[in-house]
Amino acid sequence: MHQFRTHTCGQLRKSDVGSLVRLSGWINSVRDHGGVIFIDLRDHYGKTQIVIDPKMDFYQELDRWRPETCLCFTGHVVARTPETVNPKLATGEIEIAAEAMEVLGETEQIPFQIVKDEDAPEALRLKYRFLDLRRESLHQHIVMRSELIRELRKKMWDMGFLEYQTPILTSSSPEGARDYLVPSRVHPGQFYALPQAPQQFKQLLMVAGFDRYFQIAPCFRDEDARADRSPGEFYQLDCEMSFVTQDDVFAVMEELLTEIFPKFTTKKVTPAPFPRIPYREAMSRYGTDKPDLRNPLFMIDLSALFEKSGFKAFASTVKNGGSVKGIRVPGVVGVQPRTWYDKMEAFAKENGSKGLGYITWSKEGELKGPIAKFMTPEELDELKKQGSIENGDALFFVADKTAAANAIGGKVLTRFAETLNLISNDEFRFCWIVDFPMFELDEETGKIIFSHNPFSMPQGGMDALLNKDPLDILAYQYDIVCNGIELSSGAIRNHQPELMYKAFEIAGYSRETVDEKFGGMIHAFKLGAPPHGGIAPGVDRMAMLLADAPNIREIIAFPFNQQAQDLMMNAPAPAEMKQLRELRIIPVPPELKFTETYKEIMEKAEKVRAAEAAAAAAAAGSAPSAEPSL
Description:
By secondary structure, the chain is α+β, with helices and mostly antiparallel strands. The protein is built from 17 helices and 24 strands. Strands 6-9-10-24-23-22-19-12 form an eight-stranded mixed sheet, with helices on both faces. Strand 15 and strand 16 form a beta hairpin. It is globular, with a radius of gyration of 32 Å. The two termini are 62 Å apart.
């Protein structure tokens, strides 16, 4: 018999009755029924009930063992009586009559309850994450994530992709977030960067002729935490393809997601092809480029109607370049109390609106609302037509500068859906956001800058870059969104050097700057680059959606807290002085002001290094000197 177990705690069935077995696991719970002790023993695979008779010589030892003690039991499998069968357990038809017990791991008092799913403070849960991971729900999330990665890998291989690993120590990338820097001991004063994404390397793999690449890629960005974003590191299904159009990329992702998601959920999944929504339409209709299509509400642009209306507040907004947006909320008139309307207006004001006007149509067709009296019957008829209004509906209005009206309206329509329970929780609604603008105006400087990925192919190619208003140029860039969460951005890449030089020139970069910053890519593209494109859906976000988890930390085994700290391993932490000396690093307090430039400091450091090297050469063959100082 095996030293620790013949079976797992989720394996035994009624067909095993009479067998001598050995199980190992943790005490999940203990119950005393008139002297007979019942223990639910738990391991990774499930639970099995252990029965301990008072006659057993180890019976008295049980007083010493707390829940979460790790024990090993040997005994015979016994069938439970019909009235004691537990249908909630896979092993619920049997129990083990314990004949021997061995303590494998004692436990001190645990800081919070595991079985009762106690609502412990998150900081305490993260400090004792190894205990927190014993919770059944959290444990299953991590198992599901592992299974998800396995299925993603299998499907990618089935579709002809090969997995390659790209460097972890690299140079800064142009993704836009802050880099995590790694100092070089061999090259003092110089730094590697942890990759924000394998973007440049996967494109270079296409130039190298590998055709279809994927990787479950770790990415590192020094960003603040959000509910759907972990600070520090995350994983994505990174992929790239040669000789493809945007449609080819979409077809691959749609096949992947429509096959993978149903393996982990019973919810409805959007069938392929997924809806495609142009970026500007998404902003105008939903107020966001991450629309949750489960919400049936949307905005309509009523600016043209109000521009010549008698309602001067809205008319002046439109004449000054702003917009008036309407949101039809069906069936609320006569159902929702006046306080609901007041709460919605208060919410709009909290999010930057000057107010939230509305007109209501009763079930009998009676029209009410302060705005209505400023409009002619013809205008009201047109308003009802444009808003697709039916009796019992309310039409709400947001008027402001266009960007502000979109943003406020987007939050308001989401709030409407939440308060009215309009968002279905039994489906995954996918969509593509397409036709992102290539350039935008920097609000602070007024200069033209890249909107998103500078390496995207501009629609219209060189002709568009030469002849169109830069703010009208669209890119072959796309996002895939599910239930209001962006899973990934992607693009057809700009693989033509002259196109890239011109695109960067429009954004204010000289040819020399492009060569300096992106020389590796430009040089590769001058040596026969194929058309290529890709995408990288987030593994963490997919797992979060499938687990229906409230935040991303619930599907990561060892996450940082919101301050990017690992409370269990005490990271980040100060380095030892010996390490700092080897790396030629001096921690600088933020209040210290340098009187020398970085260049002057580095020149002095270089002189010190040169002197040390000369001294070492002169002392060649002698005993090594003490470690040089900074």
